[in-house]
Amino acid sequence: MRRRYAMGLLFILAMVAIATILNDSELILPEIGALTAGTWVYRKPTWIQKPYKLFLVPSGTAVIGFLINRLPWDYPVKVLVGVGLMLLLMKVLRSNLAPAFATGLLPIIINATHWSFIVAIFFWTLSLMAGVYLQREPRMKAKDHTIRPLQMLGFLTLIVLWVVGVWLLGRPQMAAIPPVVVVLFEAIQNTDYSYKMAIRQWVALTGAASLGVGVHWLIASWLLAALVTLPLVYLLLGILKIKLPAAYAFPLLALVLPATMEATLPFAAAGSAALFLGALVSYRFLANWLPTLQTDDDQA
Length: 300
Known about the structure:
Structural class: mainly alpha
Radius of gyration: 19 Å
Number of domains: 1
Shape: globular
Protein name: Integral membrane protein
Helix content: over 70%
Transmembrane segments: 47-68, 75-93, 113-134, 146-169, 215-237, 244-261, 267-286
Keywords: Membrane, Transmembrane, Transmembrane helix
């Protein structure tokens, strides 16, 4: 695990180093951190069973987000339309690669306008795919499935509630927090999801966002900030005893967000995670409680 983590860290730092040399923040792709953690470090079977999708799906959603960002729409509308189209693409490609949402939302969040962003997406996802092919274990298999219609409806409902809520509160810039969206997409498909896991994931997401912003405020250098923060996130997840690839996106996200958005990132992460994960746990509780209540009534 430590060797894989070291390789993943060097891979991510190489991306940040190139962006630093070229002085182009659009070349820093936060979800490459999550994808690297999930594929190279944690080796999630559902993410690595078909490595070509590591290039195809995130690149496709990135193109969707990049093109939508060029339209003269309000920011929250771009987010909602983008998420809908990304869901459709993932359904067509039969993929559950959750970080693809983040690569699609990123150009909208940072207002990416240069095609260098798309080139960077292509390059780093191809590199990631190649790394997975080289490390892949031939016998590793996982069931290939996509999100179910009812789960998709719940996912979209929660996204709409959050986007509309922050829009009404006059905080439209908080409409999209990609790592939290990624966690929701995976959690909503997990039938064993519990309130204990929700609490730990909430702490991890909020903590990672706070670390990313706090360290970047103290250290202006992109490369040095990433070098400090990524191991801290690793330690945080170790303390919480969870594997959460999405958390590794926050240290990089803090580097590329506009200053006005960066300051609110920990609060937006905490709020959106509380809504999404809290609603999911509440739904699961009610779904399990109502049949039990009905059984008790029948016995009475």
